[in-house]
Amino acid sequence: MTTDTPNTAPPALVPGEDAVFLDFDGTLVEIAPRPDAVHVPDGLAEVLMDLHALCGGALALVSGRAMGELAAFLPRFTGPLIGSHGAESRGLDLPGAGHAVDLAALHARFVEFANANDLLAEAKPHGAAIHFRSRPEAEALARAFAEEMIALHPGLTLQPAKMAFELRPAGATKDAALRQLADAVPFAGRRPVYLGDDTTDEPALIWAQERGGMGVKVGEGASAARWRLSGPQAVRAWLTAATET
Ligand SMILES: [Mg+2]
């Protein structure tokens, strides 16, 4: 259930007891006009590595982005990554997703549609996205296109995101990936803490709270999370504080 989250900052992390799961865009870094234009602040990878060590390895990044992109933004972070909503991972025992879809043809259709409508297409290793941030008035047009593509590709499902519609493998969700990981080393026996800013994060926020952990909504908007941080800068300060005690 989505409710109005109070503007209450979460209590401090307890690295000895917590398993920390962090979304990337809009949570650790500010959303950029284009997905490839994200600015990664100096020192972010170092804070994540410090916290990863303090948590006994129980810290993972969980993103809808392709894992390779995520890794390229944070070359000095060598901890676990979950990409493509759980369809890809690094350093974790996740089964991943199949390739039943003709991705080259799908990507070509997205590029064609984006070029014809002054929008941005994003090719993903397991799907594709159409971004309308540059033309918010094109939301309905973009949605209609995404729904048309879903009808043609039954293995994919529609994932609305911030100013974008994404097609992802039907089985891949962040919370499903976390459910598979939670009872495995190094996460088992720890209290899950999840931070995210988008609709794709809501099931994972709820999951963390159902397991006795913390769900932290980042930024504005309704959420089922009990806690809130105002934006990526506040998130980075909160994470940094946990490395300094
Ligand atoms: Mg995000």
From TrEMBL:
Q: Which PANTHER family match?
A: TREHALOSE 6-PHOSPHATE PHOSPHATASE
The name this protein carries in UniProt is Trehalose 6-phosphate phosphatase
SUPFAM superfamilies from the UniProt entry: HAD-like
Gene Ontology BP, a term: trehalose biosynthetic process
Which catalysed reactions does the entry list for this protein?
A: alpha,alpha-trehalose 6-phosphate + H2O = alpha,alpha-trehalose + phosphate
Q: List keywords of the entry alphabetically.
A: Hydrolase, Magnesium, Metal-binding
Q: What is its EC number?
A: 3.1.3.12
Organism per entry? Frigidibacter mobilis
**Could you tell me which InterPro entries the record lists for this protein?**
HAD-like_sf, HAD-SF_hydro_IIB, HAD_sf, OTSB-like, Trehalose_PPase
Name one molecular function that GO assigns to this entry: metal ion binding
Sum up the protein's function in the record's words: Removes the phosphate from trehalose 6-phosphate to produce free trehalose.
Q: In which pathway does it act?
A: Glycan biosynthesis; trehalose biosynthesis
Read off the NCBIfam families from this record: HAD-SF-IIB, T6PP
UniProt similarity note: Belongs to the trehalose phosphatase family.
**What's the cofactor?**
Mg(2+)
